Sequence to fold (1011 residues):
Amino acid sequence: MKKITLRKKVTGLLLVLLLTAVQAYSQNLLTGKVVAADNDEPLPGVSIIEKNTLNGTVTNVDGEFSITISPGALLEFSYVGYLNKVVEPGDKENIEVFLSPDVRALDELIVIGYSSVRRKDLTGSIAIVDVEDAKTYKGTTITEGLAGKVPGVTVLSTGQPGSTPRILIRGLGHFGNNSPLYVIDGIQTNEQRDLNPEDVESIQILKDASAAALYGSRAANGVVVITTKTGKSGAPKITFNTSGGIEQASKIIPMMNAAEFAELNNMAYDNAGLPRMPGADAAFDPDIDTDWQDAFMKNGRIQKYDFSYSGGNSEGNYLLSAGYFTQDGIVKGPEFERYSIRLNSGISKKRLRINQTMFFSNTSSDNLYYGFGNPFMDMLRMLPTIPVYDNTIEGGFGIGSEANKTFGTNPVALQELNDDKSNTNKIMGNISAELEIFPFLSYKFNTSLELADWHNRRYRKRGLESYNRPQPYDELHENRGRVSTLMYENTLNFTQSFNDHNLFAVIGVSKIVTDWKQIGGSVFDFPKPYPVMSSGTRDRTIYGSDAKVGILGYLGRVTYNYKGKYLITANFRRDGSSKFGPSYKWGNFPGVSAGWVISEERFFNYNWINNLKIRGSYGLLGNSDLRGDYNYTSYINPSIAYPLGPFQDLAPGAITQLLSNPDLRWQSKTLSGAGIDASLLNNSIIITFDYFNSITDDVLVNAPIPWTSGHYGGPDPYSNVGKIKNHGVELAITYQQMKSEFSYDVTTNISMVRNEVLRLSEGYDAIFFGPTKTTVGMPIGQFFVLRTDGIFQNQEEVLAHTDENNNPIQPNAMPGDIRYKDLNGRDPETGELTGEPDGVINLDDREFAGSPWPDFEFGLTGNVSYKNWEMRLFFEGSYGNMIFSNTRAVMERMDDNSNYPTWLVPWTEENQSDEYPRALYGAAAANNVYYESDRWLDNGSYLRLRSLRLGYDIPVNSMKTNVFIQMQNVFTISSYKMWDVVHPGDVFTRGIDNGTYPNVRSFIIGLNLTY
Fold:
């Protein structure tokens, strides 16, 4: 090794110092100013970066800057709301840079049905979804990622594998199905579980009649317009995305162990004066201590793999994608799996454009089986003194005994004895051809097919799952079916500009025919374990159904604007439906909206307001969504036998099973609204505000009919008798900022929706459903329960609880029992409610005690990026709603043999609680366990961190590589004690916790590659 001399060291050091000095001397100090090209106003906070370096600065409040740069440097100027600009200063020491407003966002084309319109020309209430943000939530469907992100749109989902979220747009419109219409690449459908989220390019949600009118009767609940990806001009593009992780229950309910259960159960029997249950006393086995949550729950998993290959040029484009998704549940049983393939293509030859989309999916699921039990209730109520497995019981599962009596069902047995599977193959595709007849006139033909074949099969093995329900035979239930929807559409599009006048119009005709067929059967008792229909020996049954329905519609829209600041749109749709009788088949549904872009007026001189538009709309939508396709005619049941003669011999006969209503007609929904769109401070702040009001008239209701009319054995016929009002406000605010290599944006939204029943059928003033009541003047499904008033602490309080005549209201109550409020009674002569106490506690004393509908719902999305790092987080929640907890009622009743939560500390003379009554088993506890009481009502308000994601872009030549880690349903702030605070339900069961599959906490890692 050569020796480095001192002389060489000194020479090297001098050389380094000389080069450093030369470099410093060669750098240039550059000053300048950045102004807006449209109004010459200085722009503060503009990011300025010397390209390919970390050298940068920002402009001051006067738009001025100074920066030291290298010779030949390129400077990149960027500012929110303006187009980026690259400048080469050369030898200049001072420069002035003009940035142009980024109007591309306002010029973006939005699909609103049968045509597109520029974003800035919108007059209806349309939400434009940030698709990439929605995709960050990893779930079965793309719509799960919309929860809390669009004001006025409620997304209620569970964590069950393969489940589809329940979506409401601006509240409830009627008493039936309130799900929106989905339009995927022009194909109208009611399902989106089969759609691969990675295929989605854009989503628009049409909220009002002006926006949705062209879809006619199917748009009464709003429209979700989804456009999938197509190939782009340029070199072929390859993408590969994968992610996977584990899922867990976000909460475990603290339950008593066997010894704690036995102590409380013995107390309940002792207080009732009954012999103790042997399993908790004389026959108590300390070696059996079952944690049913641990036995039934597990870690789930979720995996996704997606691949696409796309490209195109001026004459055509193509995209081929394939996806695989699988989700395994957090409890034994449920799994979901989906394979999907998509082929989208298009060609363009002079005046002719042809586009095609084709999608195939196969979905299969192992379903969570409920049967006569409820797994999420049963793993709470099953006794810890019962083992999971018991070889002395047929089937091999612990179910209880004379020593351990329970109404609970072994949740492990429920899933392992029942093999419940579903499989669906679906094809969705459309072909459209558009011919430019003249530069201002084009004709388009579009046809689509949605075809689904399904097969459901449940085999129940021989064995016992519940002590109270013998199962002598094994059984097989199976059904297969096919549904196809064929659509034809012909439209003419007109586009013309005359100086400052711009006119757009579309007219057309649409025909949709749905053909539905199903066949199925069941059979019991298989001598050998060969479960096919021909092997069963008992109770063979077979059934089938066949239906065809159609809608024919004529549509038209005219849009006009003058100078881009006075906007008006008129829509009209005339629909005919086969679901109504000959006299009422047709309905007419018009809509109109207008807008005024005030910021385009000459008198508007507020430079800090970049865009300001006010708009209003009014329209009418129809609805023909009925259960059943032929409600205007009667059904005859020919399988009735009548006992006749002295020996009561059975004679064949028939009976009317469904009464007809030939006057059945369209349900109509009148919507009106007004809104404001604004962007401020160089488009860094974007605000959207909406007010809406809707009246749904001729609401289709199953009005009850007495059996004396001859109506028996079928559903009550539909009648147009109801009327419902919905109104509310929506607000969304976005703030976005970019500084050097650091950028962030925050979006918050809030919506308040109120509904009110204005009319029910004559002589039918209320709909009761469990603990809810729906009546005129009130919202749908309000909780209607008895009011508790604490707990009697001593006998003196029992005697002091009297009516106006000093008679005890609850004479049989004891210290430790619940005190109820006497709020109502009946007139002894008329039997009508008086509204005055009568000294008796019964169901007449119920009153409205809360609502499942929140006062408001909200969401907050934040995105932050720095260099190659990004972080996304999303909060959502609601305030003011209540939950009726059936699951808590099962655990806290104490009048039957169920396990108890550790928080349950009953009243005793030594511990005179005012929260829980005394432990009491059997009929003696009737006073304390009224089902319909506010004892089971809980606050449903919550704040949830629904998603937290951290990603990093890896610098790789010619390939964009992103890795990320993500948590979903990170935490929930709520006072509700059970698994989840969200309980979708249906119209009348919203907010009722019947053992709902909870949302789950997920830990996910992923990789995205683009080449």
Summary: The domain at 2-99 is CATH 2.60.40.10 (Immunoglobulin-like). The radius of gyration is 34 Å. The mean pLDDT is 87.
